[in-house]
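Expect sequence, tokenised fold; for instance:
***
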Amino acid sequence: MRRNETLLFSETELQIYALIAGNDGIKAREIAGRLGMNKTEVSRWMVSSALMRELCYQDREYCWHALVRQKAPYEGLYEFSGWYGTVGEFLKTDEKAWLEELKSGCRRIGRNLNDQRGLIHSFLDCRKTMLCLFDDLKELTDFPFPEWEIAFELRLNVGRMIRIYSDVLVMIPGKVFSLEFKMKKDIDPDEVIQAAKYVPYLEVVFGRNTDICPALVLTGEKEMFTYSKIGKTDYILPVSSGDMLFNVFNEYLGFLA
């Protein structure tokens, strides 16, 4: 899928937000100076923009911060994730401990843990698939993937405008993989749209220098990797069975070329 060109926010909003999210605290005066604006104009944006109201806050020293920092390590992302850490930490955590940590994190972020539709089984199915992916990457590449960051059950919905849900995010230098998991065999067009719909918001959170790489993962299928059209658009989305997920990463990283 190519970068989404939909303009959710104005260029000025994105420039202001990028400065805030790329720094560990910055004052409106400094933002104005860097962007050639006046402080009053910047302050007006801080009040009027949903992007700033929902994803930023001001400390007691009048410095502005983003809820999620726009550079690795992505400080703040933990607060909106059921489980967050490095891939190396994930690989070292056994199933029972990982599941308990995930459930605890889901309760912390307000994620409904009603298991009537097999939610816990889906968590474990997702974990198994990701473990297989990293086994494949270990065999096929020399990537330092234990240093990558990974988040399970991201729920960033602090306001009405910014809402991001993701089953798994894998964050590597310059790219973020957003994976939507379904325990199914067949491609549902609505689920393809679901896998793609948060890309524009993820682009805002992680910044323009980071490529967002979405995919739909069907763990009920085997030996399948294809592309599916996203709704009525000309965009396409990678769709993979769980055992072929390494192909999604190869699509963007090219290690099998």
